[in-house]
Write a structure and sequence with these properties.
The protein is mostly beta strands. It is 13% helix and 32% strand. Bound molecules: ligand MTE. The site of ligand MTE has 19 residues, from strand 3.
Length: 403
């Protein structure tokens, strides 16, 4: 489904824009094979309005809010809350701390609920995490893939503080039959969009770094990021980190809802670009893949001759970045970049290298990251129907002016 196709359906498009449903459907359009979804996609991609408190972000969809951070602003190890990208499928619910409770049911000894205050009284745990939407980079797939057309900025790093999910679950007694922990936010299904419910295998849920957060970078989690409670599933693609967390259920099997059974799946074997994939050849996404982002110089910028510093971040989900190579000549030759001192288990790592450029002209700068498991960023992305996990060697074009 391409952008062009969607431009025909004017009546439906204006209806969707007026009712605010365009953005929601656009976010899932890669999973709804109809011109209805394509038309919603077209309108959502064109808006120029801004969202209060997030004025500096790029609006990919106005309602529900899908907001991307411009690469120029991703220049600090911790991404400030007002610059952090936003992704949701449904309308953000109105939430209040007073009276908030988390229901826990299913394969537990003592089903019941825990209040926000009780969660706050559990030992505090902070996990610093680079969170990235699985669809970050979707705009670069060829042939194009429908869905929110994220470019490079659906990623950011924050310190998430709360209680360990394992400490919360201990209160209810996890039965040995439990295999998956279902995470359900307070956002509600509307129009044709199913309820956003995800599940995480018990081993990952009980890992000490998995938290139910109530603070983001030292402040109560802002409403768009899941106030008052959200799950943080470190190193895994962003959709596991369910916002406005209101209900947990332990199951002896995978949840059978749309956002587990159909969405967030990736082909298990290489497929031809544009080809359909049999659902039996798809597996759930889990960890983020090795990736780099050049944050300076910016794409299409003009710089003076002399010292030109290439900078950015590289990350690899649950794995560590061990090396980043950079190139000045479109990948013909490479230099090893210096890695930043700031690092935590699930975060990106800064990299930098200073080139000397004396000749004016156009240059293609590249960054290629490698992780501790031996994975290296590919030259070409593996095309997949939903446009997930774009992690091609990053590149920017610069113009070096005459002295
Ligand atoms: N949680 C709920 N309840 N509803 C959602 O639509 N979107 C998920 C996840 N948690 C979502 C959600 C997706 S797809 C991503 S990438 C992250 O939240 C984005 O988190 P952020 O908006 O705080 O950046």
């Amino acid at each position: 489904m391409s952008k062009q196709k969607g431009r025909g359906a004017f009546t439906r498009r204006s209806f969707l824009a007026a009712t605010g449903q365009a953005g929601a459907i656009a976010g899932l359009s890669h999973l709804f094979p109809s011109s209805f979804a394509a038309s919603a996609f077209a309108i959502a991609a064109q808006t120029t309005a801004t969202i209060k408190g997030k004025e500096r972000l790029i609006v990919r969809s106005l309602r529900p809010e899908d907001l991307e951070t411009p690469v120029a602003l991703l220049n600090s190890f911790i991404t400030p809350n007002d610059l952090f990208y936003v992704r949701h499928h449904l309308y953000a619910p109105r939430t209040e701390a007073a009276g908030w409770k988390l229901d826990v049911s299913g394969e537990v000894e003592r089903p019941g609920a825990i209040t926000l205050d009780e969660i706050r009284r559990l030992p505090r745990a902070t996990t610093t995490v680079t969170l990235e939407c699985a669809g970050n980079g979707r705009a670069f797939f060829d042939p194009p893939v429908a869905g929110i057309q994220w470019e490079k900025g659906a990623v950011g790093t924050a310190r998430w503080t709360g209680a360990r999910l394992s400490d919360v679950l201990k209160k209810f007694g996890v039965k040995s039959a439990a295999k998956y922990v279902v995470l359900d936010g307070a956002d509600k299904s509307f129009a044709k969009i199913p309820d956003f419910i995800r599940n995480v295998p018990v081993a990952k849920a009980l890992h000490p770094d998995t938290v139910i957060a109530y603070e983001m970078n030292g402040e109560p989690i802002p409403p768009l990021h899941g106030f008052p409670l959200r799950a943080i599933i470190p190193g895994w693609e962003g959709a596991y980190s369910v916002k406005w967390l209101a209900r947990i259920e332990l199951l002896d099997r995978e949840h059978d809802g749309f956002f587990v059974k159909t969405a967030y799946k990736y082909p298990t074997k290489r497929i031809a670009p544009g080809a359909a994939v049999d659902p039996k050849d798809m597996a759930p996404l889990t960890g983020l893949v090795v990736k780099s982002l050049i944050t300076a110089p910016l794409d299409n910028s003009t710089v003076k001759p002399g010292a030109v510093k290439i900078e950015g971040f590289a990350w690899a989900g649950e794995s560590d970045i061990v090396r980043v190579d950079v190139s000045l000549d479109g990948g013909a030759t490479w230099r090893e970049a210096a890695l930043g001192r700031e690092r935590e288990k699930y975060t990106w790592r800064g990299f930098s290298h200073e080139f000397r450029i004396t000749e004016p002209g156009h240059y293609t700068l590249m960054a290629r990251a490698a992780d501790a498991l031996g994975n290296v960023q590919p030259v070409e992305a593996m095309w997949n129907p939903s446009g997930y996990l774009w992690n091609v060697i990053d590149r920017v074009r610069i113009n070096v002016e005459a002295a």
